[in-house]
Amino acid sequence: MTTLATPRSAHRAPGFTAALAVPAAATLLALMNYTAPMAVLADTARGLHAGATAQIWLMSSISLGLAAALLAVGSLADDHGRKRVFLIGAGVLAASSVVCAVAPDAGVFVAGRIVQGAASAALLATGLGIVAASFEPGPRRAHATGVWGAMLGLGIALGPIASAGLAGAGGWRLWYWTAALASVLLGASALVLPESRAAKPRGLDLPGLATLCLGVGALVAAITWGRAGWTRPAVLALFAAAAVSLSAFTAIEARRREPMLDLGLFRRPAFLLSIVGALVTGLAVIGVMSYLATIMALVLGLSTVAAALVLAIWSGLSFAAALQARRLPSRLPAGRLLGAGLALSAAGELAMLGLAPDGHWWRLVPGLAVAGIGSGLANAMLARLAVESVPAGRASMGTGANNTARYVGASVGVAIVGAIATGSGTGASDLAHGTNVALLVSAVVALAGAALAVTIRRVPR
């Protein structure tokens, strides 16, 4: 049985470089695929004959698969082999990308995107687990997790640009054929990786898996569908199902001898910081930035490609900042740096206030730059906390819990930003006013998250 590799043996292993390169490439592909529809939503909706409600699902359905599967696949990977689950994820992503590429209608496309989300969850959770298994705590792991975190920003930057470019060359479906090919190549590259798993695997927690996936899936579905009407019976039923399932999951995990998620971890300041930080990042950063390219097109009149390129200022600097985070003094606590990242994100959002139909895109550049640096710093620290806040051998579970909070937060954030931005109307002036309010609300939430990061860091163990 293979276990976590020591740094010395990992350094000598032929797959040592691949242990960072392959997970980084997987994260890049997953985030590019996550953001790809942003730039081609109108073309995709026309091609699939999707109405207004269906368009919400075209954009958000991948979040359902991601959030529902992240913690579950992370736990499975720790116990049954990270490489094995990674390879399954790459194969399923390839197959589901083909489904999206040939989808005849919105229903088939949405189903494909949900499965893409679950497959991406396998790549994200196992990828950082593989990194943690190959690098001991210290500067080398800090560098490796920084690279992994940097791919989040780079993927967000490249996804809309790549999909828009491919749409211009051969239609919106071309991105999904490209994603399928990339997934196959990714799986082939992963074959060189050594297998790793926890030294003491646990039994399969089927009741925990079922209630968690149902609960998180119902919650994200309710949030997504709720954007078309929060008081609809189906939406209320989904919220009720989420509450029942997640309560059942908590009760099951509290009574199991070897739970999938040890609830005692929430008494660890570092783990609590990882979850709260990820949730705030989704709420206050990903939520508003996911909407910004569309708003630039509607309010400032930019083309979809131009709007994606402007947004790439934020995501590109996020990539660069996460890469450079390893150069920060190791004596600085991750919690303090996470708080600084959230505070910078808030400052950048405040700097973007004043959006108006007669404004220019360059007016947003200073705020995008500051927010990008803050986002990169936060991503690097969240990646480090995800693997260092859990027991040795549970890195994929820690990553899954961290990213579940991130994408649940993002789903809520997108819903809130959309409601605020369109609350006054859909004209250019109304959208500009609503977006300014959404930026202010997001900044306040990010500042509250920064304050919590400092507070949680000081809680005694």
UniProtKB/TrEMBL annotation:
Keyword hit for Transmembrane: yes
Domain Major facilitator superfamily (MFS) profile: 19-461
GO cellular component: plasma membrane
SUPFAM superfamilies: MFS general substrate transporter
Locations listed in the record: Cell membrane
Superkingdom per UniProt: Bacteria
Location (main, coarse): membrane
CDD domains the record matches: MFS_MMR_MDR_like
Keywords: Membrane, Transmembrane, Transmembrane helix
Transmembrane segments: 52-73, 85-104, 110-135, 147-168, 174-194, 206-228, 234-252, 272-299, 305-325, 337-356, 368-387, 407-425, 437-456
Membrane topology: Multi-pass membrane protein
Keyword Isomerase carried by entry: no
Coiled coil: none
Molecular-function GO terms, alphabetical: transmembrane transporter activity
Protein name: MFS transporter
Species name: Actinomadura soli
Taxonomic lineage from the root: Bacteria, Bacillati, Actinomycetota, Actinomycetes, Streptosporangiales
